[in-house]
Amino acid sequence: MRRATGVGVLDRVVAILDAVEARPMGASELARHLGLAVPTVHRLAAAMVVHGLLFRDAEGRHHVGSRFASTALAAAASPVLEELRRETGETAQVWVPRGDSRLCLACVESTSELRASLPVGTALPLSAKGSAAQALTEEPGESSRRWFESVSVRTPGLCSVSAPVHYATEIVAAVCVAAPVSRVRAEGPGAQWGALVVAAAERLEEALRSR
Question: How many alpha carbons lie under 13 Å from residue 70 in its C-beta half-sphere?
Fold first, then answer.
């Protein structure tokens, strides 16, 4: 039995989340299932998509959104990033989309004195087009690229390589290795660390599937 709080909008939002967690549904089907007005559910579902509480697939069905993956990502990120730092010697991060920005959800910094350093909680515009922004803004299935690199694009003297993390059909995060250009081989960070970053992203995807 669902518990009502008396806060109508919140109760309806939770009812929608409960319903799509059990079975993905379109807005009209949700309205019938919950006994709510169709325009109300369409409006609520659209707002929930904007805030990452739901995502809508190509068939118009709503699923639990990426905001609920963030807790599992944060829990799984530390050992994955620690291993990635050990393999590369460089700073390893997880970034998640937040509107028009990307948020640093987790970071394990290089032990080198000269290193790329951005604290957890840092927000950067997606328009800045570092490698993490490229990975987060790629449309799923748009290309066969598994990693993206950036060399002195956002910050002169720094470079990075990132790979997207998928949850169902959505890109919910990017794993990134960032380093001073001076420590990267001539072929670039992608050739040097791309496979390692992709493997780290796949480990996070597995953590999300098994949560």
Answer: 17
* Beta strand extents in the chain (DSSP E only): 54-56, 62-64, 91-98, 101-108, 123-125, 148-151, 158-167, 170-180
Q: Residue 1's pLDDT is what?
A: 41
Query: CA 45 to CA 36: how far, in whole Å?
Result: 12
Which amino acid belongs to residue 157? G
Tell me the pLDDT tens digit for each residue of 96-140. 998 889 999 999 999 999 999 989 999 999 998 899 999 999 876
The span from the CA of 53 to the CA of 43, in Å, is 13
Query: CA–CA separation, 2 vs 56, rounded Å?
Result: 24
Q: Which tokens in the block code for residue 206?
A: 């597995």
* Cβ neighbourhood burial of 70 (10 Å; 0-12, 13-18, 19+): buried
Q: Which two tokens stand for residue 200?
A: 């780290």
d(CA 211, CA 207) in angstroms, rounded, equals 6
Short-list 174, 189, 70, 188, CA closest to 132: 174
Phi, psi at 178, each rounded to 5°: -120, 140
